[in-house]
Design brief:
The chain has 526 residues and is mainly β. It folds into 4 domains: 113 residues, no CATH class; 156 residues, Copper type II, ascorbate-dependent monooxygenase, N-terminal domain (Jelly Rolls); 145 residues, Jelly Rolls, CATH 2.60.120; 83 residues, Sandwich (Immunoglobulin-like), CATH 2.60.40.1930. The chain is 9% helix and 36% strand. It contains 5 helices and 29 strands. The chain has a 5-stranded mixed beta sheet with strand order 2-11-5-8-12, with no helix packed on it. Strands 1-27-24-23 form a 4-stranded antiparallel beta sheet, with no helix packed on it. The chain starts with a strand and ends with a strand.
Length: 526
C-alpha cells in the first residue's frame, strides 16, 4: 500500500460550462475562466487564500487537490441546499457535470492548452475587494492574542470622527492576522459607553460582558460583519444602513485558539452611498427566547432539535439570513408561513460546518406579510457520534460564546415592505459568496470515493502541528489497519492515499488522532 502525506490547502471554484468528456479539457480554455472568476479573488497575494491561483503553473500544482475536494463536495464552500426552493446571490456549488469536468482535466494531465486562449489575469483593487473606501478605520495599537489554546472574544472601539450621518452601503474588514481572526461582529455606538468601558481597562479593548455588544447584550441593528473568505456585500437600489455622526465603531472579534502569541492590528474600510439612500436595512436576531421548546440546554449524550418562531409585526421584505451555531450544530431549516398558510422557504443547511458560515443574501427580496410566522429549526448532536464535539466525554452544554459552548443565533436582514419588492431582482454587487472557509480546527473529511473497493483518498486538516495517526476499524471495535503514523505533521490540510481492494465487504470507520483529539468517518466497502 502506497502512502503519501503532503500539505494541501483548499481552493474555491464555481460554475463552469458542461463540456463533452471526449473533448480535451485545458487550463486556457476551460479552467482559467473559472479560477479567475471565482477563486483568484481569495487566492492571490495578501488575501485569505493560503496560496495564489493567478496563472497556470500555480493552478496545476494544486490540480489533484482540486479534484479531491470537489468530488467529496467539500468545496466549493457553499452549504445552502440548492433544492430548497430559494436562490441567493453568489451561489457557489458545482453540478455533477461540472465536477466530472474538473476530474477529466486533472486525469487528462492538467493540460495548459494554448496560452493565447487564456483570459487575462484579473486586476483587483489594491487593499480592498470593493474599491476605494470613503473612510478607513484602524486599530489604535496592536492587540496580542495570547497563546493559551483558548478562544478570546474582545471588543475594540474605533471612533469614526463623522461630523454628519452617513449612508453605509458596504463595510469591509481587513484582518491584520488571518491565522487567528475567526470572525467579527460590528455595531455603531452613539452613547459613548463602549469607549468609556475601554478606557476603564489598561489594555487595548475590553472583554465580553462589560457593555455594548459585550456578552451579546446589544443585539440591535448590526452592521456588516466579517468571516474569512467572505467578500463584502454592497447594498444597491437605494438601500443602506445608517452610520450616525459622532458614532464609534464597536467591533467584537473572535480570536481562534492558538498555542503561540499572535499579534493583530486590523483595518475597516467603509463605503458610503453616492446618492442619499431611500431605504434603510434593519436586522432582527432570533435567539433562545424565540424557542417554543426551550430552554436551550443540551444534556450530555443527547441529540436535540430546537424550534424557534418569530411573528412578523408588519409587512417586510427579507434581504438575507445568517444561521449560526457551533460544533454541536448539525443542520438548519428555516421557512415562513403566511397568514394564508403559504410556505416561503428561506434556507436549509443539511450538513452544518462550523468552518463555513456567513450571510446568505437573497437574489429576490422575500415578501413576508404582517403576522407571517418564521419557523427556524436547528439540530444539535451532543454525543460521541459527533466527531466535532469539543467535549470528550460529552458534557451538559448551553448558550455561550466560546466554541466549547453552543449557540442558537439567526440574524435576519429586512426592510419595511414596498410595493413591487417581490419582483425586485438584486445584484448586490457582491463579488462572491459570503461564506466562511477557515482552517481553525482539526477535521477529518469524508473518504473519496465512498463506497470504495480500490484506491481512495483520505483528507484531513490539522489546526496545529502534532503527532498523527490514521487507523481503520471495523464496527466491532477491532483495529484492522494502521494507515499512517507520524511523530510530527505540519499544520494545514493533508491527503493520505489508501487502497481498500483487499478488505472484506462491510462498514468501517476511519479515525484520525492528533493532539488528543479523535475524528471519525464511516466508509463502506461493497
Amino acid at each position: 500500500m502506497k502512502k503519501t502525506l503532503f500539505p494541501v490547502f483548499v481552493m474555491a471554484c464555481l460554475l463552469i460550462p458542461s463540456i463533452g468528456q471526449s473533448q480535451t479539457i485545458t487550463w486556457s480554455e476551460h479552467v482559467a475562466p473559472i479560477v479567475f472568476n471565482h477563486c483568484t479573488t481569495c487566492h492571490r497575494p495578501g488575501e485569505i487564500g493560503p496560496f495564489s491561483l493567478t496563472n497556470y503553473d500555480e493552478a496545476a500544482s494544486w490540480s489533484n487537490m482540486m479534484q479531491y475536494v470537489t468530488e467529496i463536495r467539500y468545496m466549493p464552500p457553499w452549504k445552502a441546499d440548492s433544492k430548497f426552493g430559494v436562490d441567493y446571490l453568489g451561489e457557489n456549488y458545482l453540478s455533477d457535470n461540472e465536477i466530472a469536468t474538473i476530474k477529466s482535466w486533472v486525469e487528462g494531465g492538467s493540460l495548459e492548452g494554448d496560452p493565447a486562449l487564456a483570459p487575462p489575469t484579473p486586476v483587483f483593487p489594491s487593499g480592498s475587494q470593493v474599491g476605494t473606501p470613503d473612510l478607513v478605520l484602524s486599530f489604535a495599537q496592536t492587540h496580542l492574542h495570547k497563546g493559551t489554546n483558548y478562544d478570546e472574544y474582545r471588543y475594540f472601539v474605533l471612533p469614526t470622527g463623522l461630523t454628519q450621518t452617513k449612508d453605509l452601503v458596504a463595510l469591509e474588514m481587513r484582518p491584520g492576522n488571518t491565522k487567528v481572526v475567526h470572525h467579527a461582529l460590528v455595531w455603531a455606538d452613539t452613547s459613548g459607553s463602549a469607549a468609556a468601558l475601554d478606557a476603564q481597562t489598561p489594555e487595548y479593548g475590553y472583554v465580553p460582558g462589560q457593555g455594548v455588544g459585550g456578552g451579546q447584550t446589544d443585539l440591535g441593528d448590526q452592521l456588516p460583519g466579517y468571516v474569512p473568505g467572505a467578500r463584502p456585500n454592497v447594498f444597491t437600489n437605494g438601500m443602506a444602513q445608517r452610520l450616525p455622526k459622532g458614532s464609534d465603531l464597536v467591533v467584537q472579534i473572535h480570536y481562534a485558539p492558538t498555542a503561540v502569541d499572535e499579534p493583530d492590528s486590523s483595518t475597516f474600510n467603509l463605503f458610503f452611498a453616492d446618492q442619499p439612500a431611500t431605504r434603510f436595512v434593519n436586522s432582527y436576531i432570533m435567539l433562545p427566547p424565540n424557542l417554543v421548546n426551550g430552554p436551550f440546554i443540551m444534556p450530555a449524550n443527547t441529540v436535540k432539535e430546537f424550534h424557534g418562531t418569530f411573528k412578523v409585526p408588519l409587512d417586510v421584505s427579507l434581504l438575507g439570513i445568517a444561521p449560526h451555531c457551533h460544533k454541536l450544530g448539525q443542520n438548519w431549516r428555516v421557512f415562513a408561513v403566511t397568514p394564508q398558510n403559504d410556505t416561503i422557504p428561506l434556507i436549509h443547511i443539511e450538513d452544518w460546518d462550523f468552518n463555513w458560515q456567513g450571510t446568505y443574501h437573497f437574489k429576490k427580496l422575500q415578501k413576508l406579510p404582517k403576522n407571517t410566522v418564521i419557523h427556524a429549526y436547528a439540530t444539535y448532536d451532543n454525543t460521541t457520534n459527533n466527531p466535532f464535539n469539543p467535549n470528550n466525554p460529552p458534557k451538559l452544554t448551553t448558550w455561550g460564546e466560546s466554541t466549547t459552548d453552543e449557540m442558537y443565533y439567526l440574524p435576519l436582514l429586512w426592510l419595511p415592505y414596498k410595493t413591487g419588492d417581490e419582483n425586485l431582482v438584486l445584484d448586490g454587487n457582491t463579488t462572491a459568496t459570503n461564506n466562511l472557509f477557515h482552517f481553525s480546527q482539526t477535521k477529518l473529511y469524508p473518504v473519496s470515493p465512498n463506497p470504495v473497493n480500490g484506491p481512495a483518498k483520505i483528507g484531513f486538516t490539522i489546526a496545529e502541528a502534532g503527532a498523527v495517526s490514521v487507523q481503520l476499524w471495523n464496527l466491532h471495535g477491532q483495529l484492522i489497519q494502521n494507515l499512517a503514523t507520524y511523530e510530527q505533521a505540519m499544520a494545514g490540510e493533508h491527503i493520505l492515499d489508501w487502497n481498500a481492494a483487499n478488505l472484506p465487504s462491510g462498514l468501517y470507520c476511519i479515525t484520525l488522532r492528533v493532539n488528543g483529539l479523535v475524528q471519525t468517518q464511516k466508509v463502506v466497502v461493497p
